[in-house]
Amino acid sequence: MTALFALATSLLWGLADFGGGLLTRRTPALTVVVVSQAIAATVLGVIVVATGGWSEAGPRLWFAVAAGLVGPIALLCFYKALALGPMGVVSPLGTVGVAVPVGVGLFLGERPALTQVAGIAVAVLGIALAGGPQLRGAPVQRQAILLTLVAAFGFGTVFALIAEASTTITGLFLALFVQRVVNVAAGGVALFASVRRGGTALPDGSFPWRSLPALAFVGLADVAANGTYVIAAQHGPVTVAAVLASLYPVVTALAARGFLRERLQGVQAAGAGLALVGTLLLATG
User: Fold this and answer.
1) pLDDT digits (tens, 9 = 90+) for 80-116
2) 1-29 burial string, b = 16+ CB within 10 Å, else e?
3) Helix (H) or strand (E) holding 110
């Protein structure tokens, strides 16, 4: 069950990243984040009311609040790093944050089998290679590397925090709702500050209504991925769940290949293959 839900997480996150990447080509990134997360928060709010999730309120919700605060910061750092580039370096570096939940799992006493240890090593290498690391070309700015590492460990911290935010399904809905509300609030403040500094919030000064279905998909896929990750982490080793959930760059690359006809570099294809081998080792271990 852990492998199944963790792989579902990587699929959902990979598609959400692909959709978000397409949207940010014509809409400011902060606007995409705020609107997509607001849609997800609205849907979750309805679910919480329908399931009586408010009864699950307790101290664990502070983990959801913390995840909601860390998430937007990580996203902003990641987008800034992508802007500084080169993306071929930023993208694979962004996956090193998996060390956070894996480290937490080891600290809590998890001891993966030898086969799973090998699977983790192979999968992490595959994830990095699938990002298409740029071995030649323009030098990388130190600021880009620093921002990428901050973003990566921010994402990893969200992994660890959201896994501790609930112990039941109804509690999970409430935790995800709280996380999204905090996401929207933090992102809204950042968007307001950006506009005050002269930035733009809407393309051509009007709301992109045609993009609303895509924005909804991105937000709902992202929140669904968080949910499947929590289930995966609660039903098996966090070390395994975190690595399998981090396969999303492979999904994004394959989506770009399928929908945009982008060609995979040899190193990306090799990385995808290694990631799949690592997945099999983890699942069978």
Assistant:
1) 776 665 555 556 566 667 777 777 777 878 777 788 7
2) ebbebbbbbbbbbbbbbbbbbbbbeebbb
3) none
